[in-house]
Write a structure and sequence with these properties.
mainly alpha; rod-shaped; 76 residues
Length: 76
């Protein structure tokens, strides 16, 4: 005797066969931007960059971190 499967009554569409995925370079650039941004900020605070602790280094580090997070938000 065969068992009947119970249907929930909801329609679940199948996943498209051509589901878009991010290229392989996206996580590489994302990780590099995040790590480089944090490194620039830390090295600036340690005083190892030329010049006094300048805001342009902090801005560069912040831009790199934000760029890394924007890539992470769009990564599929």
């Amino acid at each position: 005797m065969a068992q009947k499967t119970k249907s929930s009554g909801r329609y679940t569409p199948p996943k498209p066969k051509s589901a878009k995925r991010s290229p392989l370079w996206v996580p590489a650039v994302m990780g590099t931007a995040l790590l480089t941004g944090v490194a620039v900020i830390v090295i600036n605070y340690l005083g190892l960059l030329p010049g006094n602790a300048e805001n342009r280094y902090l801005f560069l580090g912040l831009v790199l971190v934000v760029f890394g997070f924007s890539l992470a938000a769009n990564y599929k």
